[in-house]
Give the backbone structure.
Amino acid sequence: MSEAQDVAQDLSHDLAQAEGAIDAALAAVGGLVGRLPAYRTTAGLSAVAGQDVFAALCQATATLGVARGEVVLGHNRLEVLRRAMKLQPVTATGPADKPNQTVPEPASFV
């Protein structure tokens, strides 16, 4: 395996960890947001109570969604670069065969 292929393998592992971390954060914050109304009613609070908390956590979820999209965009651009370098496809666990995967070519990719 070439040095560039080794780097691609390491990068794939790091990218998978980053994608997993964002997904885990989305699941955690989304779950918290989903439980907030029950927490509020269990505590006997009005719908007005904690609205600022609810709004902030909803915004955090939206921000994580945007961050996830940016990481996916980076992933796709790395795929374009991998193809341009004529490297073999890899996954976080090793070489991969991705015959049916289509990745759009970003118009602004240099």
